[in-house]
Design goal:
3-stranded antiparallel sheet; about 60% helix; Arc Repressor Mutant, subunit A; mainly alpha; 5 domains
Length: about 525
């Protein structure tokens, strides 16, 4: 991993899990697989602290363990999985857009806890939804369970690997660490639970103090007497499936910008028909006939079969080749070419970055090199219709930034400059990796800036939180309006203005992080598609 990625991982771990977990996670990222005793001695932490931190990291799938040949257990950090923490808000927002507030809270709770049984998750979400409902209503467990089933059916959540049951007559000593087993057929199978009841509202502080011990004792007695029906079956968020959804949305938006809304709806239908059957790293979707696509179009889309065939022909003949004809079936079947679509999206991202940083003329040269592959400097000047001096400066500027590369083709073995062709070209994969590294660095800088802004205004934030807590408690006891106004005046007008400025700056930084992450996703998906075999 690069230093920018390590720094970003460290910031993410510290922000979400604290200093101890961050110290151990960063140590594992830097050093690779390590044993428990080695981690404790090198980090200078207590063995108990290391164990608890590793439990947290394993619970959130940020660290995996493996038994070595000599019998010792080593722990290894999952660096790419740590970087996915940056995308958690996007996962939650997507679940909200697809399945409403219930889906949003289900995914949020799973990301917050790492792994949870379905029964526990449903109760937590029902209680949270009940707190937000008015008129004393309560959320039904069955309604939350149905949303969870829909999440599992679309593979947005999946089962975690389980520890197999030990044999009745074990031979030899038990292994130093359990080996987890996952049955792919049962990965999305939801257990049949008869969850009857409704969510409960949170009690006030006084009620919690009075009845806390009694409720805890009852809960412990209930757990000890009768385990939940899905005991041992844990669920987690399927990040790969969310990434597949993001990729499909990007492809649909690109088709809408290039063609029209009808063409994008056709591509959306094709992607939706094969979203569960197509693997995340597949080069193209499953072949679909025009009749199947026509039957699966949304009910409100009134287009004839003839118009659909015309759109499919236009999409297949488009130079970007987002949609192609399947060669195995004589050309009557259509597929969405995922790898070519990702390459086009990455190329468009590179073009926009070049235009933003160096201007439209540099972007014209960059697009020319992408189209023509290899060109000499004189050819670039002629084709781009740019004066020689300006074209030379622009090429050298992009060459120094590693956006274009120079390839030497000698006529003679001595590589004499007078007898050598110098061809400019664009290596899209190399440029994407370089820009991806810069994106990681940008996000790390944004996170540090947000932490700095928060630290500089720490005293004011604490004061604001105290005033808000006092106001809430006084409103609950039915205080008069004049008393509430006196409490509000504890924060002066300049302090309120300072708080507004801080809030605005933090919101801007958060929006920048999300926008950079969208670029990171496009570049990462393209690079992975070039590495994985179709």
């Amino acid at each position: 991993m690069t230093q920018a990625e390590i720094k970003l991982c460290s910031l993410l771990l510290q922000e979400h899990f604290g200093e101890i977990v961050e110290k151990i996670g960063t140590y594992l990222i830097r050093t690779g697989s390590q044993a428990l005793r080695g981690i404790a001695s090198d980090t200078g932490l207590l063995l108990d602290q290391v164990k608890k931190a590793l439990c947290v990291l394993i619970q959130h799938n940020l660290v995996r363990y493996q038994v070595q040949r000599r019998g010792c257990v080593e722990y290894e950090a999952r660096c790419q999985r740590v970087l996915r923490i940056l995308r958690y808000p996007r996962y939650i927002y997507t679940a909200k857009a697809l399945y409403g507030d219930t889906g949003e809270l289900l995914v949020e709770e799973l990301l917050l806890h790492g792994q949870l049984p379905m029964s526990t998750l449903v109760r937590k979400v029902a209680d949270r939804l009940t707190d937000t409902m008015e008129d004393g209503k309560a959320m039904d467990y069955a309604e939350v369970s149905s949303t969870f089933v829909r999440l599992a059916d679309t593979h947005l959540v999946q089962r975690c690997p389980l520890v197999p049951e030990p044999p009745q007559n074990p031979e030899g000593p038990p292994p130093p660490a359990p080996s987890l087993v996952l049955d792919e057929k049962e990965m999305y199978a939801v257990p049949r639970l008869n969850l009857v009841g409704r969510g409960k509202r949170r009690r006030s502080c006084e009620e919690e103090e009075d009845g806390g011990r009694r409720a805890k004792r009852q809960r412990q007695d209930g757990e000890s007497s009768e385990p939940p029906p899905d005991d041992g079956i844990y669920w987690q968020v399927n990040i790969e499936r969310f990434h597949q959804h993001f990729r499909d949305q990007a492809i649909v938006s690109a088709v809408a910008n290039r063609m029209d809304q009808t063409g994008s709806e056709i591509v959306r239908t094709m992607l939706r028909m094969s979203e569960v059957t197509t693997a995340s790293g597949a080069a193209h979707t499953q072949p679909l006939s025009s009749n199947e696509i026509f039957r699966s179009l949304p009910a409100g889309y009134n287009i004839s079969k003839q118009v659909l065939d015309q759109y499919l022909t236009l999409l297949a003949d488009d130079p970007l080749e987002f949609v192609g004809k399947s060669g195995d079936s004589g050309g009557g079947m259509y597929t969405v070419n995922l790898h070519k679509a990702l390459a086009s999206l990455a190329t468009a991202t590179l073009e926009s970055i070049v235009e933003e940083r160096f201007g439209s003329r540099c972007a014209r040269i960059f697009r020319l090199l992408l189209r023509k592959k290899h060109l000499e400097q004189k050819q670039v000047e002629d084709f781009a219709m740019i004066p020689a001096k300006e074209a030379k400066d622009m090429l050298y500027k992009m060459l120094s930034e590693n956006l274009v590369s120079l390839q030497e083709i000698p006529k003679t073995p001595d590589h004499a400059p007078s007898r050598t062709f110098y061809l400019y070209t664009v290596n899209v994969a190399s440029s994407a990796r370089m820009l991806l590294h810069r994106c990681y660095k940008s996000v790390a800088n944004l996170m540090e800036r947000r932490q700095y802004e928060t630290k500089e205004n720490k005293r004011l934030l604490e004061k604001s939180q105290r005033v808000e807590a006092i106001l809430a408690s006084m409103q609950a006891t039915g205080a008069e309006e004049t008393q509430l106004q006196e409490i509000e005046e504890m924060i002066t007008a300049p302090e309120r203005q300072q708080l507004e400025t801080l809030k605005r700056n933090v919101n801007k930084i958060d929006a920048c992080e999300n926008q950079v992450d969208e670029t990171i996703f496009v570049l990462e998906s393209f690079i992975e598609s070039t590495v994985k075999k179709p």
